[in-house]
Amino acid sequence: MRNPMFVHDEALTDLVLDYCRRRLALDPVPLDWGGTHGSLEGALAGLINPLGNSPETVLGIFRDRLADAVISCDSPRFLSFIPAAPTKAALLFDMVVSCSSLQGTSWLEAAGAVAAENQALRVLADLAGLPPGAGGCFVSGGTLGNLSALVVARDAGPAAGRPRTGRPRVAVSTEAHSSIGNTLRIIGADPLLVPVPDHRLTGHALRAALDGDPAAADLIAVVATAGTTNAGIVDDLAGVAAVAADRDLWFHVDAAYGGAGLFSPLVRDRFAGIDRADSLVVDPHKWLFAPFDCAGLLYRNPALARAVHAQEASYLEVIHDDAPDHWNPTDYAMHLTRRARGLPLWFSLAVHGTDAYRTAVDTVVTTARAAADLISATPHLDLVRDPDLSIVLFRRTGWDAADYQHWSEELLASQVGFVTPSRWEGEPVARLAFLHPDTTVDIVGEILDTMA
Ligand SMILES: *Cc1c(COP(=O)(O)O)cnc(C)c1O
Predict the structure, then answer these.
(1) In this structure, which residue's CA is closest to atom 2 in ligand 1?
(2) What is the pTM of this model?
(3) Distance of alpha carbon 72 from alpha carbon 32, whole angstroms
(4) Would you call 274 exposed, middle or buried from its count of C-beta atoms within 10 A (0-12, 13-18, 19+)?
(5) From the CB of 225, is ligand 1 less than 6 Å away?
(6) Beta carbons of 389 and 234 less than 8 angstroms apart
(7) Which fold is adopted by the domain 355-449?
(8) Whole-Å CA distances, 393 to 154, 422, 449
(9) Domain 96-352: top CATH class
(10) 159 contacts 220 by C-beta, under 8 angstroms
(11) Which residues contact 23 (CB under 8 A, 6 or more apart)?
């Protein structure tokens, strides 16, 4: 007799694939409401029990009680944080990865998946202008990419053999992502906070900070951001790269959000110098239209990363004794078993072609610029700065933090948009993060009209 865990298999397949078909067909995807809608405790009470439930019951509870308590980050009206806009090709292939139990740990086990993931990574490396020997792996997010890269900087970077007077230090700007601060804490490094008057780390500012720093000898790396998360500002990568080279420091570029801009001729020049990165993080689950969770982590010299991250165990020797040109993604970050999470991106890139990506990113940049123009032309609104990429910060004159918060809640309740407030130089502001190619200037106009 079959194990009871498998008795529903056939009916389940139809049921779940049918749900997926309907979800994929939603156009546009509705925003929905997030965590405060309805009683989730009541919906879930008693559901996990010794005897189980029918698949219809459980999927029904998910569909009717849980799914609309998740704000759809792939709605074109989701303009908070960093939205998502995965292609159908990528979403569907994510199901293939799941349904085929595809992992991407080692070449020995998964050469086909790894070769395809590496083809997608190479697209990112080529966009950035990294040399042919560059490589890495896909990790769960920019956070894990930043952590994995800075461990390599510490243990195998140019400063690894240098005598230090204290803890290792990493030069960062005040605008660096929160994950960089956490990373430094985890790896036992201290930040050298470089003051950046215009919120943009420059070679000049970095040099001045290093010259004025008594413990500059303990520096191991500098982190530049290519697209800050709050304002979308791209640091002076060429200037920072030059200083890093002069001082023999590891140069890490966090392009988790902004890296997609490399596709767009409208903004590509802002990234000059990114080709000099020792390590680079780009999140396809942000602006490269891939589903969660997917971040590309690239090293100029992957052998350094392998020396730091490869895990050793008697049962793993076989994957490392393999031919030297066999690539084990597991060796390049802080993980062992890993989902072949680069494949949805790979499939979508292969199906749509890179021109479609360029067009989509261009569209988003153009929409952000049009939104900035609309804000500038509206008397009671005040643009904070011209967008570098696709994030627009602005003020509503006369509003305090409570006004923004109240407005944001009303906007979601009316399903016109999901726009959460942020801060700029200590003051509350509104923030629009563009990423979905279907977000139109009309939608922006509808949202701005609610601020009158
Ligand atoms: C989003 C983001 C991160 C963190 O990436 P996750 O995928 O959320 O872990 C790091 N740096 C920047 C600049 C980001 O925008």
Answers:
(1) 256
(2) 0.97
(3) 6
(4) buried
(5) yes
(6) yes
(7) Aspartate Aminotransferase, domain 1 (3.90.1150)
(8) 35, 8, 16
(9) alpha beta
(10) yes
(11) none
Distance CA 333, CA 16 (A): 34
- Rounded to an integer, what distance in angstroms lies between the CA atom of residue 270 and that of residue 224? 13
Mean pLDDT by 10 residues, the chain (452 residues): 84 96 97 78 94 96 93 98 98 98 96 98 98 98 98 97 95 97 98 95 98 93 98 98 98 98 98 98 98 98 97 90 85 98 98 98 98 98 98 98 98 97 97 98 98 96
Cα separation, 414 vs 420, whole angstroms: 14
Q: How far apart are the C-alpha atoms of 271 and 269, rounded to whole Å?
A: 5
> Pairing relation of β-strands 295-299 and 279-282?
antiparallel
For residue 412, how far is its CA from the centre of ligand 1 (angstroms)?
24
Pocket probe mutation, ligand 1, options 146, 235, 257, max atoms within 8 Å of Cβ: 257
Delimit the domains of the chain by residue range.
96-352, 355-449
User: CA of 122: how far to CAs of 59, 135, 163, 355, in Å?
Assistant: 39, 7, 36, 16
How many angstroms separate the alpha carbon of residue 183 from the centre of ligand 1? 12
**Cα angle: 301, vertex 302, 304; to 5 degrees:** 80
The CA distance from 31 to 240, in Å, is 40
**Can 96-352 and 355-449 be said to share one CATH topology?**
no
- Displacement of CA 324 from its chain's centroid (Å): 31
